[in-house]
Amino acid sequence: MITADHLLLLSIVLFSIGVLGVLTRRNAIIIFMSIELMLNAANLNFVAFSRFGKVPELTGQTFATFIICVAAGEVAIGLAIIIALFRNKETVQVDELNLLRW
Amino acid sequence: MNGSEAIFGLLAAVTVLGAIGVITRKNPVHSALLLIATLMSVAGIYVLLEAEFLAAVQVLVYAGGVMVLFLFVIMLVDLEQRGKSAGAGRKLSKGTVALGAVLTVVFLCVLLSTFAMEPLGASHAGSEALRAGGGNLGSVALVMFRYYLLPFELASVLLLVAMVGAIVLGRFKL
Q: Options 1.10.238.10, 2.30.30.140, 3.10.20.340, 1.20.120.1200; which CATH number does B1-80 get?
């Protein structure tokens, strides 16, 4: 029997991997993929509580749908920014983008 | 340990291993492909949790839309890494051709076997139950349009703004 604990455990592992990717990688595209991993971990939590909550209902699934929608918009904008960045600086490594560093 | 638990274990393992691969691979294309595997197995977990609509949205939006966008941008942007290994692997090896042929035959068999099946919804108990209850999609639609209509409309405005913003950012020289 799958319980909410299994899902929360999986979700926390997925979220931690995403945080690790954001903190350790320098390629902007891979940082974006790690953010997607974290959003998926949040979605898993929503669905888990929608299924195993005290009162099972579908609000969690609705919110997860909204999160997917926001994530799609975020990816479109973020990748457009990366393209604009690459046009100007010829790089996507975030440690080479130090224009605002004091 | 029953069946659904075993399937959950398998999907969770694929999810976690794929996620680890995403942040450890050197080549961004490999990362993107592993991310697709992760997202697909998360969709499988949604199916296990009886969230079929969300699983379909996950596959369509993430694996279908977002990841294609990612791969396009990787191939547009990641020129310096691609340049090193260009020219290699131009010729198809015998194994690749054989694998392609086998997959083509399997795909054709699957396609042609649909003619042998009976029409959809003829005598399936499961589909009848689904139609009677409206299924997961019907329930989600009720919740979404009865209680969350304003967020739904706001989400459409958000997507419109994101689309315009992406076009502006991508088109003009900033």
A: 1.20.120.1200
